[in-house]
Specification:
By secondary structure, this protein is α/β, with parallel strands linked by helices. It folds into 2 domains: about 150 residues, Aspartate Aminotransferase, domain 1, CATH 3.90.1150; about 220 residues, Type I PLP-dependent aspartate aminotransferase-like (Major domain) (Aspartate Aminotransferase, domain 2, 3-Layer(aba) Sandwich), CATH 3.40.640. Helices cover about 45% and strands about 15% of the residues. The protein has 15 helices and 12 strands. Strands 2-8-7-6-5-3-4 form a 7-stranded mixed β-sheet, with helices on both faces. Strands 9-12-11 form a 3-stranded antiparallel β-sheet. Strands 1-10 form a two-stranded parallel sheet. Helix 3 packs antiparallel against helix 12, helix 5 crosses helix 6 and helix 5 packs across helix 11. The radius of gyration is 22 Å and the shape is globular. The protein starts with 5 loop residues before the first helix and ends with a helix. The N terminus is likely disordered. The structure holds pyridoxal-5'-phosphate. Pyridoxal-5'-phosphate binds next to helix 5.
Length: about 375
């Protein structure tokens, strides 16, 4: 990433006042795509805001998933044993493991909390990068565990060498998020598997692959291979991202059968609903929807990259459904100002620099982001 400077802000205000949005940005790939979304902003109620803060996926769920939910509603009086078995079988086939390697959860959050309960506690020490997604770490801390942080390096990548050097018998769990949230940056398949193969003989490694389907090479990047080879690695996956199930709450983890038993004792027991599991089963095998979902996300990223390029901003190219970029004002103040302009994003400070994390979304929401950002950035310059 190039150096970010005040010059960028000046350039930003100049390009914005040159009527950027009316011209160049509207020639974006979303408009020419077969899945083009016409702007319905004008018809929206006044309280509408663009929700670009939680990495949700507005391009789904799949039609096949919705159909499966409707069909499953009539069976809602039954405990959903059969549909759970069907989903477990589909996952087992997809991941190349047997069913006793799999635990379902109502979203992967339930599985992260189960991991915190099994490997946390008052004597636990959880090692992870900082910043990363902290749900597991926070749960462990609430139980009295210590968080051993290894800062991301200057390029905002995991420093696996340092992480490895911190792995001692005192560490109870290593937690890695790949691709990482909030950076959108990745560890390659060989990096993560090399790390897991070295470390997992000493300490269990929990790999959170929430965004893996957005990677250039999901199959070549997963750590599930290590589990197939007998290593003490736990991989968590969610349907909340590429499958667009954030509100349906479906996730799963894969680990050695004895670890799955421990996680099940401490964690979710049949918490998923029949309609959600039926929908997940349909979505998992809907290759057409999955490629549509990834394609729309890529087109949204092209819009954001194009906007930031034209505004003179640097950003981290992302293999997820969000983009992180440096800003020149306090992150929290920025977030509040964006919200005043009806756009919800995340503002944060990393290594002393302020950043915005913006989730991908539909064209009309991305346009709202671009308009609000121009106003908020302009205001900062005027204050200067
Ligand atoms: C890295 C990561 N893991 C897990 C989750 C939790 O997802 P869910 O509980 O919806 O499966 C999120 C949510 O944004 C996330 O970013």
């Amino acid at each position: 990433m190039k150096n970010f400077s005040r010059r960028n802000w000046l350039k930003a205000s100049m390009t914005a006042s040159a009527g950027l949005f009316a011209a160049g940005l509207h020639a974006n790939p979303l408009e020419t795509s077969p899945y083009s979304l016409s702007s319905s902003r004008k018809k929206r109620p006044d309280d509408y805001y663009a929700r670009l803060s939680s990495n949700e996926n507005p391009f789904g769920p799949a039609a096949s998933a919705k159909k499966a939910i409707k069909a499953a509603i009539d069976d809602s009086f039954l405990y959903p044993r059969e549909v759970r078995m069907e989903l477990m079988e589909t996952i087992a086939k997809l991941e190349g493991v047997s069913k006793d390697h799999i635990l379902l959860g109502a979203g992967s959050s339930e599985l992260l909390h189960a991991g915190a309960r099994v490997y946390g506690g008052s004597t636990g020490k959880v090692l992870s990068a900082d910043p990363t997604y902290v749900s597991l770490v926070r749960s462990a801390e609430l139980m009295g565990s210590e968080w051993i942080k290894v800062p991301l390096n200057k390029e905002m990548d995991h420093d696996l060498g340092i992480m490895e050097s911190k792995v001692t018998k005192a560490i109870s769990l290593v937690y890695l998020v790949n691709p990482n949230n909030p950076t959108g940056k990745i560890l390659t398949g060989s990096e993560i598997r090399g790390f897991c193969n070295l470390v997992a003989d000493k300490v269990p490694v929990f790999v959170d692959e929430a965004y893996i389907d957005y990677m250039d090479d999901p199959a070549g990047s997963t750590a599930v291979d290590c589990i197939r080879n007998g290593k003490n690695v736990i991989v968590a996956k969610t349907f909340s991202k590429v499958h667009a199930f954030a509100g349906l709450r479906v996730g799963y983890c894969i680990a050695q059968p004895e670890v799955i038993k421990k996680l099940a004792e401490e964690g979710p027991r049949n918490t998923l609903t029949g309609p959600s599991m039926a929908a997940a089963n349909a979505s998992l095998t809907d290759a057409e929807f999955l490629s549509y979902s990834v394609k729309m996300n890529n087109e949204s990223k092209k819009f954001i990259y194009g906007f930031l390029d034209k505004m003179g901003y640097d950003y981290f190219p992302s293999q997820t459904n969000f983009v992180l970029f440096p800003i020149s004002m306090d992150g929290e103040e920025y977030r509040k100002k964006m919200m005043v302009n009806k756009v919800s994003v995340r503002g944060m400070k990393i290594h002393g620099q302020d950043y915005c994390r913006v989730s991908m979304g539909k064209l009309e929401d991305l346009e709202m982001f671009a308009d609000a950002f121009t106003k908020v950035a302009g205001q900062t310059l005027n204050k200067g």
